[in-house]
Every structure is written in structure tokens, then in C-alpha cells.
Amino acid sequence: MERAILNNMATIRMISGLLEIAVALIFLKIGRVDSALRMNAFLGLVGPLVF
Fold first, then answer.
1. Which domain holds residue 46?
2. Which is more confident, 48 or 22?
């Protein structure tokens, strides 16, 4: 039971980390501050909702 909980927690953290990295790469590709701020705000909302 504990192992399953740990696996789920680790999976959620990996997904969260991958999302952060993907958005950071999109920041670099787009190169616009206004778009980056919007995406950053979205990440700020998603984090607390997931955890």
C-alpha cells in the first residue's frame, strides 16, 4: 500500500516537472515576455490545483 502511494506521488511530481520544463522551452521558442507571463501564471494556478 505504501509503495503504491509513493509511486503515485513520484509520478505526479515527474509529470509536474516535465510540464515545467516544457513550458520553459516554449518560453525560449516564443521569445515574447507577455506570452511567457501568461504561461507562467497558468503554471502558478495549475500547481496548487494538482497538489
1. 2-50
2. 22
